[in-house]
Amino acid sequence: MRQFIENRILPKVEKPARYQGNELNSVHKDWSRIPIRIAFAFPDVYEVGMSHLGLRILYHIVNRREDTLMERVFAPWVDFEDQLRQNRIPLFSLESYTPLTEFDVIAFTLQYEMSYTNILNMLDLAGIPLRSSARDHRWPLVLAGGPAAYNPEPVAPFIDAFLIGEGEDAVHDIIDAIKKWKQAPAKNKGDLLRELVRIPGIYVPEFYDVRYHTDGTIREVVPNVSFAPARVVKRVVKDIDRADFPTSPIVPFTEIIHDRVMLEVLRGCSRGCRFCQAGMIYRPVREKRPETIMEQASELIKNTGYDEISLTSLSTSDYTCVEGVLESLMDRYGPRGVGISLPSLRADSFSVELAKQVQRVRKTTLTFAPEAGTQRLRDVINKGVTEENLMKATEGAFKAGWTAVKLYFMIGLPTETFADLDGIADLAHKVVNLGRDILGERAGRLKVTVSASSFVPKAHTPFQWAPQDSIEVLKEKQQYLARRLKHRRIVFNWHDARLSFIEAVFARGGRGVSESLEKAWQLGCKFDSWTDHFKFDKWMEAFAGAGLDPAFYANRPFGLDEVLPWDHIDAGVSKEFLVSEYERAFHEQTTPDCRHEPCTVCGVCQNLPAAMDLKGGLSNAPH
Amino acid sequence: MPRIRIEFSKGEQVRFLSHLDMLKAFERAVRRAEIPIAFSEGFNPHPRLSFASALAVGVTSEREYADLELKDDVDLRDIIGRLAAAMPPGIEIKAGRFIPDNAPALMAEVNRAAYKVLAPVNDTLQREELDSQIEDFMSLPEVVITKWTRKGPRQKNIRPGIVSFEGYLSDGEVEFSLITVTGSEGNIRPEEAVSAFTKHSGLPIDSDSLYIRRMALYIEKGGKLVSPMDIN
After folding, report:
1. Between the CA atoms of A580, A584, A586 and A589, what dihedral angle is there, to the nearest 10 degrees?
2. Cis peptide before A185 (omega within 30 of 0)
3. Domain range for residue A80?
4. Which of B12, B25, B47 sits opposite A253 (nearest CB)?
5. A368 and A311: one domain?
6. CATH of domain B3-106
7. Which of A136, A232, B4, B109 fits a disulfide with A203 by CB distance 3.0 to 4.6 angstroms?
C-alpha cells in the first residue's frame, strides 16, 4: 500500500511531505512485538497538529513504554482525502501506514470546537462507525482529551471515553487498563469501559443519563451505573518540574506553524480574565525550576537542531524566574545563532523589556492583547491592564525600534456598548500618534494592526452563563469599528461572526447538539476553521434538519440555577467562585491575582491534589 | 576559512521534501552535529551552506552536492562522520573533501544532470518501435513545449537542453535514461523531456505517473563530464 500511495497518490497532492512520516525522532516500532497500539489523531492538518505541544509530549511518553506504540494521524487535506476515497484506501497512520482499524485505540485531541467535523470525517475515512454505540470491542476504542473535552457533551455519542485534564500521568493508567483488559480471555467493550471509568479523570458518556425539563434545559445528568462517579474531576500534574517532558521531539521536514523548540516553562495562569477558558482549566500555576529549563533547552537544541527556542506558557512574562532564565539562555545560545522567543506578551513595560532583551536581531511585530477598549470593560472582564500600561508598553516598543504592533481585542463581551468600541478606535489612534511621534523619519513604516475576535462563552469560565451577541449585532459592531479605524496606518481584521456563532453552539451545547454535528458533516462540512471551507448555509441546514435552535445555546443567557451541560465535569474551579466572578463582573469589580493578594478561593488548591508552585517565590511574581 | 564539499543522496524516505525542506534539514543537522559553520554577515545571519542544484519534490537522487564554509580548522573525517550521524534517515553523506578558497560556487559550475525515469506503459510496446521513435525524437531540430506561467502560455524549445536520451523496455515499464542541461545555462526538467517524447511519438506511455531519480550532477568542461568532487 505504501508504494502505491507514494508512487500514485503523493505526486498528485499538495504538500506531500505532510504524509511521508519519516521525520527525525519519529518512532517506528515493530508491530509484531508491541501489544498495545495507539493512534494519536489530530483533527486538523499536519502543520497545525505538529505545532501542538501536547501531541509531542504524549507521543514520546507513550513510545518510551516497551509495551506500547503510538503513531500519528492528521486530517488529510481535501485533495488527499479525494484520492483516498477514489482509491478506497482507509485512513492510515504516518509512521507505518497502518489502517486506523488495526489500532487498539484512536485518541483524538479536542483543541477547538470547529475541528469536530474533522473527527467524524477521520473516523469515516478510516471505515469506523461514527457512534460509540455502533462499535463493539472489535473496533478500536475511541478516546478524546484536550481543553475542549471540558464540555464533552457535543461529541459524547461518538467518543467512548474522555480524559479530563492533564495527560502525563493519566495516559499510563489508561494504557495499563487496556493492557489488563486485552489479556483477559473473553473480551467485551463494557468490561473495558468499566476498567477505564475507575481511573480518576475518565468520563464515559454512556454511563450517564441526561434528563431534560420541558423547556429544553437540563434537569440532571446522573450516572446510570454504580461504579461511575457523579462528578469527574480533572487530572492535574502536581509537580510540573518533575513531569515527563520529552527532549527529543519530532522535527518536521516541512514547515509547520510553530517551527521551533517549544519549551514549556510554566502551566496555568492566575490572572483570572473572566472570558478565558485556559486561564480557568489549567489552574493552578505551576512553574519549572530554572535549572530544569536550562537542561531541557540544552537537550532540545542538541536533539533537534532548531535555531529558535520558544518559552511557552499561557503567560511567560509571569514566570517568577523569567529574567534570569532569559539572560542565561541568551548568554548560552546567542553566540551560537539560536534565538529565544516569547509567544505572548502582556501589555506592560516589563514585557516589552523582556522582548527587547530577546529580540536583539530579528525585529518583527510586537503583539499585545488589551482585549477591551475602555477601562470600564477591562474591569468587567478582569483584564488587569490599564491604558497607561498599554501606552507605556507601545512607547517602549517604538523606542526600541519596533515599527509594527498588533493589538488584540474581543468584541461582543458582556455589557459592551458602542462607547467601548469607540474606546478600541481611540486606543488604536493614540498608538498611531505615539508611533508617529517617536519613529520620526521612520514613521513611514509604522503599522498598527487591530484584530477583533468575537466573544464566545466557554464552559468553566465566569462568562459561561453569558449570551453571545447575535450574528447581526456582531456584524454591525465590526462594520462600526471598520469605519472608525479607517486610517492608512491601521489594518483592521475581524473574525467571521457566523463561525463564532457555530463555535458558541458547540462550546455551550449539550449532548443534543451532536445530531446537528453529524448532519453538518453529512452535508459536507469539514475544516470549518479554514475560511475557504466554512459552509455556514450547510450548518444552518443541519440545525434545521435536526430540529435544533442554535440560538438556544449561543445567544440565550443561561440561568445561574440552571444545570449546565458540563456540570458533571469538575475543573477544580468551583461553581461558587464562577458565580461570584460573574456577579462581580456586572458590578465592574476586579478580582486580584492570587499571587499578589490573598487567595481568592477559586477552589483549585482546595479541591485538587496540587497547589500553586512558584519557583521564584511569591515576592518575585511579576505584576 | 576552510571550505568543505560533500556528496550526499536523497532517498525514498525523504523523497517528498522540497528544496527548502532539504536546506532546512541540512542546517539542523549541522547544528546537531555542532559543526563550526560560518555565518553570513548582516541582521539575519545564515549559515554558509549552499547546494549545487534544486531537486524537485518527489524526486530522489543518488548524488547531490553541498558546500559548507567553516570558521575553524577541522579534521575532515571527524566533520563528515559527525554530519553523517546527525542526518535524518534518508539523507546519506557519501563523501567529503576540502576545496580551494577560490573554487567557484557549486551553483555556478554544475551544468549537467543525469536522470533515470520510470514510466508505466499502458498498452503493448515493442522494443524496436521505442528505439526508432527515440532516434526520430533526437533527430528533431527543435522540440517546442508550452509552459504555463502566471503571464499565460510560453513556448520553449527544450531540444538544445537534452544532451542524451535513451529508453529501455522492461516489465511493462520504460526506463528512460537521460542527461539534460541544468544550472545557469538553463534548466530542462526530466518530466518535460519525457512528456514531450510521449507526445511526439504517440506511444502508450503514462507520463503522469513518473518515478524520477537523479543519478548524477556534472560539470561539463570541453566535452567531458566531471564530478563536482573531482575538481582540482
Report:
1. -170
2. no
3. 2-233
4. B25
5. yes
6. 3.30.70.580
7. A232
Per-residue pLDDT tens over the stretch A606-617: 999 999 999 988
Q: Predicted ipTM? A: 0.89
Which residue in B10, B13, B15, B71 has the most chain A C-beta atoms within 10 A of its own C-beta, making it the best mutation to test that interface?
B15
Residue in B with minimal Cα distance to A254:
B21
pLDDT digits 0-9 by tens, A428-481: 999 999 999 999 998 899 999 999 999 999 999 999 999 999 999 999 999 999
Same domain, residue pair A327 and A384: yes
Instruction: Verify that A463 and A603 share a domain, yes or no.
Output: yes
Q: Which of residues 3-32 of A touch B (CB under 8 A)?
A: 6-8, 10-11, 16-17, 19-20, 22-24
The contacts of residue A502 (CB under 8 Å, 6+ apart) are A113, A114, A528, A536, A539, A550
Residues A191 and A69 in one domain: yes
Residues A403 and A424: their CA atoms lie apart, in Å, by 20
Instruction: Please name the member of B29, B45, B89 whose beta carbon is closest to the beta carbon of A305.
Output: B29
Q: What is the pLDDT of residue A361?
A: 52
What span, in angstroms and rounded, lies between the C-alpha atoms of A343 and B31? Answer: 23
Q: Which fold has domain B112-230?
A: Alpha-Beta Plaits (3.30.70)
What pLDDT score does B45 carry? 80
Of A233, A248, A271, the residue at which a domain comes to its end is A233
Distance CA A523, CA A542 (A): 7
One domain for residues A191 and A271 = no
Q: How high is the pLDDT of residue A561?
A: 95
Comparing CB atoms, the residue among B43, B47, B89 nearest residue A361 is: B43
Using CB atoms, pick whichever of B13, B16, B30 lies closest to residue A10.
B16
The predicted pLDDT at position A363 comes to 64
- What is the tally of structural domains in chain A? 2
Which CATH number covers residue A312?
3.80.30.20
User: CB distance from B39 to chain A under 8 Å?
Assistant: yes
Q: Which residue of chain A is at minimal alpha-carbon distance from B118?
A: A7
Does residue A210 share a domain with residue A110? yes
Contact A337 B39 (CB under 8 A): yes
Mean pLDDT of A617-622: 86
Chain A, 194 to 253: residues with Cβ < 8 Å from chain B are 251, 253
- Angle among Cα B20, B25, B29 to the nearest 5 degrees reads 150
Tell me, yes or no, whether A407 and A483 share the same domain: yes
Q: Does B11 touch chain A (CB under 8 A)?
A: no
Note the pLDDT tens digit of each residue in A109-160: 999 999 999 999 999 999 999 999 999 999 999 999 999 999 999 999 999 9
Residue A410 domain-assigned (yes or no) = yes
Q: A377 and A320 in one domain?
A: yes
Q: Around Cβ A411, how many Cβ atoms within 10 Å?
A: 26
The cell numbers describing A485, all together, are 479605524
Distance separating alpha carbons of residues A183 and A234, to the nearest angstrom: 28
